[in-house]
Design goal:
Chain lengths: 528, 230
Amino acid sequence: MKVINIIGAGLAGLSAALTLAEKGIHSRLISVLPSERAQSVLAEGGINAALDTMGEDDTRELHFEETMRGGVMLADPAAVKALTDGAPGIVERLAALGVPFNRNPDGSLMLRSFGGQKKKRTAFAQSSTGKMIMTSLIDAVRRYEADGLVERLSHHTMIRLLIKDGVCAGVRVRDDYGGRLYDYAGTVIIACGGLNGFFPGITTGTDANSGMAASVLFAQGVKFANLEMIQYHPTTIGIPGKRCLVSEAARGEGGRLFSLKDGVRSYFMEERYPTLGNLMPRDVVSREMYSELRGGAETFLDMTGISDGTWENKLSDLREEIIHYLSLDPAKEPIPVEPGIHYFMGGIYVNTRHETCLPGLYAAGECACIYHGANRLGGNSLLGAVFGGMTAAQSVSGYRDRPRLTDGAFNGADELDCAPSEAFSASLGYMLREGLGIVRNDSGIRAALENVQMLGYGNAAERAKKALAEAMLYSALGRMESRGAHYREDFPETFEGFRSVTAAEYRDDAVRITFEDIGQGGVDNDKV
Amino acid sequence: MIKFEILRRRSASDPPYTATVSYDRDADTTVAEALTYINAEILTDDPVAWEHSCRQKKCGACAMLINGVPKLACDAWLRDYPEGVIRLAPLRKFPPVRDLMVDRSVMFENLKMLGAWLTENADGDTEGTAYDASRCLQCGCCLEVCPNFYAGGKFSGAAALAPASRLISEAQGADRKRLYGAYNERFYRGCGKSLSCRNICPAGIDTERLLVSSNAAAVWKRLFRRGKKK
């Protein structure tokens, strides 16, 4: 019996499991924690689709164009086209599954404004869209768990891929409750989320993400792409142990950014960008905020102009959260905000079918590099996760591979059955943060790289994590231009010659970076 | 200076013991942060096992007993314990794994047995029940305080009331009938209406409201309709 191993039970993993189950294909949903604990539940603002319910003549073509432009033309246009064409169907399907989206008086889905988009295109459920979508998808998948089509292995950690004859033939996992190792045969879909674990304590993500799944894949030879593309979300607040997101919906619903210096307020985004103003793409807003902060100003988000009705019906959770953590009511006074690491556009290099460079291995969701180019638009991550999971599952369903392994307990010792120490990850995170800030330059990246290279490792997990960290820095060093989230003050221009993918590989104990034409990721499994 | 008394155990089969740790840092932080510091700096060689993920009370991972009360560690502030002693213990209604980790899979098994899913398209809920109920974290705090819930019993508690209420509010056709029956069997009949779940939910879900609306749909209106037919 064909069983697909899905690593990660967040939105992309659930989407893949559901799609496979609907085709009658068995899957194992393998995750460190249950779906309810996945980072997807933190997504707030919404999901993009050109549903055109707001009387603005929105089109799928415009969604495509703005996604491409927002990503500064670095994404694969064929993949983005499929994504934006598929978006309306996906959002309608989610509504049919019971996601309680906000609706217009006529019953159609209400859409809100979001960054980098000239039309209202973002469907939402107040400011807890991710949580609402996850709840509905968890229930939808549960139906197939009861049928035996989906087997859940929560509290299980991926240890390594099992590669045989140059093909991904299965995966080794550890039951974190008992500590035993098991080998599971079958095709693998990775849906392990972004690279937050490389920046402990300073991202908006979860700390359950250790970055280890990605590190192991990299160490095992899987090709990654665009690792230098790290999104800083403009509006985050510091809370114990992390940055807490203040949704872009706050600006979509009328929130205004200003800086304060010597008692003078400057609504810098509106002054510098009259058309989109506060809703410029995130890379632009974060850079402007950085320049304000570097100039000695403080930056604030002013939401006092938002109406009571909007707070109540569209942003109630956000208001509650801000009051809880800052003891400030955003409806009554501006709140201090600063940019924080939020999303990784780079990751496992896949093609439009979500195939990786290794036959039998697929990837979807934030861990995969495909849709967002050099900068992701708000509202496209939930979309990319659902669509990516579906697409990977569809590709897998057509993949015919002979069984190369059998399932069973693994009784030997595996050098990767370990974890990086907290001290190691903290040091690495500090070094990466120094080299990969909002504004970068050659000497800063090189200094970070030297520090990382000098960092000793104590086990195989630390060695793998260090290798991927080096790849992030080498990617940033090699891209001698500014594009999207990657801003080099020593190369402030965007060069057409760099409109190519930064591909990173680990071969013979060394990181290798090459620039490849867009759209060349992955192998066609049907031709292997 | 805050004294942490942490109820630990190496495995489910090992006996529990109390580890005492002195914490002398800023009290303007959460128990989750303090635990992270304790593991990284004090108990480096033998860190306390506990589940954690979002750190902003949206995922339910870090539920535990804090001075006897079920709470999320990321939502418990040290400044709220001025007596200077914070006792951490695992939730008691679930099988222990080690230290503060427990196996909460019974909640998910119960939802499977309840049939918590739709087979037909959702019928848009207009009263906000689906939204409120969908906020459930499946953390288990409500089950910890419930006098009627025990793991392995048929009564599935408020952790099932929330998902069931979302589905009941959106179900139509055959789903509705199926869910009404399951709600009766696995929730309504076992609930003693003590409402101890009412003020414990870290997500602030009004379980009483869900109870009223789901009872009305699945029990009273249904009985009434049945009576009328006769």
